[in-house]
Design a protein that fits this description.
This protein has helices at residues 13-16, 30-35, 42-53, 61-68, 75-79, 86-97, 105-117, 121-128, 138-145, 154-162, 196-200, 202-214, 230-233, 238-253, 275-281, 284-287, 295-302, 308-315, 319-323, 350-356, 360-366, 390-393, 395-410, 422-434, 444-454; strands spanning 178-179, 187-192, 217-220, 269-272, 305-307, 342-347, 372-376, 416-419, 441-442. With 459 residues, it is of the alpha/beta class. It has 3 domains: 3-102, Fumarate Reductase Iron-sulfur Protein, Chain B, domain 2 (Orthogonal Bundle), CATH 1.10.1060; 170-313; 324-454, Rossmann fold (3-Layer(aba) Sandwich). The strands form 2 sheets. Strands 1-3-2-4-5 form a 5-stranded mixed sheet. A 4-stranded parallel sheet has the order 7-6-8-9. Helix 15 (275-281) runs parallel beside helix 20 (350-356), helix 18 (308-315) crosses helix 21 (360-366) and helix 23 crosses helix 24 (422-434). The longest helix has 16 residues, at 238-253. The protein is globular, with a radius of gyration of 22 Å.
């Protein structure tokens, strides 16, 4: 990457001008919700940016901490009546916060550790392999009940609290390069597996492949694909994000095209089943715009990216697939009926709802499942506290938001929760469990796959 692409310009005063400080953003702001201070709200941060631009305020460690408290959930963008693009403001500010003097040595060390591990599946697998005998076992429960995990410190304790049982399939990517379409081929797509999702919830990708194939979609899965860069992108680590982004583009180019192993036919779309990844993939044009060698390729790739719900809703479920959708079972094993439907609470992930404007598509797909009743949370637009690595670097604030979200979702009375983002899923599972609520958390595609298999679908 060229040196000129390493840092974006700091946000200018003109970018903050549309803000009239009306306060409509405050009720939607997750950090303001738990901290209650003006400087930890979008309005307060915009005021700070104006003061910095005017030379009235210095971006020191104290001021930076108020920007670090932002989850980047973009709920304020949806709520703003003046059209302030706070998402662009915070994205331009994030890289400035990575100056060494703005965080403590411990904070910098934790971030270096996370950015050296989370975007690299093979490194994560090596780290997690010894924990297979611990995660999801009585030993893990004992360690938590005894208070032993609190001795690790709040950040490491937060990591342990999110650690799910580790399935055998998490430690290898067993998909073939090309999964053929069942029946008549209706489309040909690429699938990004994600880094955290393929380790901590590999059943989601398996469900995505099964549902796509059953709907007549040929799926290409590049074996060398890595992280899309979402983890680093959301934290303003631009050089690493660009390295990860170009590697993803190269991994698809290496297998699709004339003379390539996955065939000459172009892809109709590149799909992703994790909304945080989707948000970053759709911004490859902006992420790579400053580098002449990659700008055109980044824009072309971003134009192909769709969330898997967007794609399936646009394509339409096939007649054969729809005919095999059957009611799901209640916890007691009985099938849902019109008189006793299965209630599901749908969770809106922030980077899907506010970042990509996707809300109707996953709900529409879930409603295709017979006798499934969707229930809405009362504060669907408020962040759950996951927000990339936020629940690891700001564990106290994230835990409070997790408790609020878990109480909201459980208050719907639904038997289970549907979540389309791996970070949200881990966060919500943790706080539902800690709050004594038994609802499982599944991806919408997992529910579609289960319904299809219940009706006799195979593949």
């Amino acid at each position: 990457m060229s040196a000129s692409a390493s840092q974006p310009p700091a946000p200018t005063a003109s970018a903050t001008d549309p803000c009239v400080h009306c306060g409509f953003c405050l009720p939607t702001c997750a950090s303001y919700r738990v901290l209650g201070t003006e400087m930890d709200s979008p309005r307060g941060r915009i005021h700070a940016l104006k003061a910095i631009a005017a030379g009235e305020l210095t971006l020191d460690a104290t001021v930076a901490s108020h920007f670090d408290s932002c989850l980047g959930c973009f709920a304020c963008v949806t709520a703003c009546p003046s059209g302030v693009r706070y998402d662009q403001l915070i994205e331009a500010t994030r890289p400035q916060l990575n100056a060494p003097e703005l965080r403590s040595p411990a904070q910098r060390a934790l971030r270096r550790l996370l950015f050296a591990l989370l975007p690299y599946p093979q490194r994560l697998r090596a780290l997690l392999a010894p924990l297979r005998a611990y995660a999801g076992t009585p030993l893990q429960g004992l360690a938590r009940r005894s208070g032993l995990t609190r001795l690790f410190g709040p950040q490491l304790e937060a990591m342990e609290r999110l650690l799910p049982p580790l399935a055998p399939e998490a430690f290898s990517d067993s998909f073939p390069l090309v999964v053929p379409a069942q029946g008549s081929k209706r489309a040909r797509v690429g699938l990004l597996l994600g880094c955290v999702q393929r380790l901590f919830d590999p059943q989601v990708n398996a469900a995505a492949v099964a549902v796509l194939s059953a709907n007549g979609v040929e799926v290409v899965i590049p074996p060398q694909q890595g992280c899309c860069g979402a983890v680093t992108h959301h934290q303003g680590e631009l050089p690493q994000t660009r390295q990860l982004a170009t590697a993803v583009i190269d991994s698809f180019a290496a297998v699709v095209g004339p003379g390539r192993p996955a065939g000459d036919a172009p892809l109709d779309a590149v799909l992703v089943a994790a909304s945080g990844c989707g948000h970053t993939l759709k911004h490859y044009d902006a992420i790579l715009a400053a580098d002449p060698a990659w700008a055109e390729r980044g824009s072309a790739f971003a134009s192909q990216v769709l969330d898997v719900h967007q794609f399936l809703q646009g394509l339409g479920l096939s007649e054969a697939f729809s005919a095999q959708l059957a009611p799901l079972s209640h916890a007691d094993g009985t099938a849902a009926t019109a008189e006793r439907p299965l209630a599901v609470a749908y969770h809106d992930a922030c980077h899907m709802l506010h970042g990509q404007g996707i809300s109707a598509e996953p709900r529409s797909l879930l409603r295709r499942i017979p006798h499934l009743l969707l229930r809405e949370a009362s504060e669907a637009g408020v962040c759950c506290g996951s927000a990339g690595i936020y629940n690891l670097v700001q564990p106290d604030e994230a835990a409070e938001l997790g408790r609020i979200k878990a109480a909201d979702l459980s208050g719907t009375g639904a038997a289970l929760v549907a979540s389309a983002n791996i970070g949200c899923t881990l966060q919500i599972r943790r706080h539902l469990e800690e709050g004594g609520h038994p609802q499982p958390v599944l991806h919408p595609l997992q529910l579609l796959e289960r319904s299809w298999r219940a009706g006799g679908g195979q593949g």
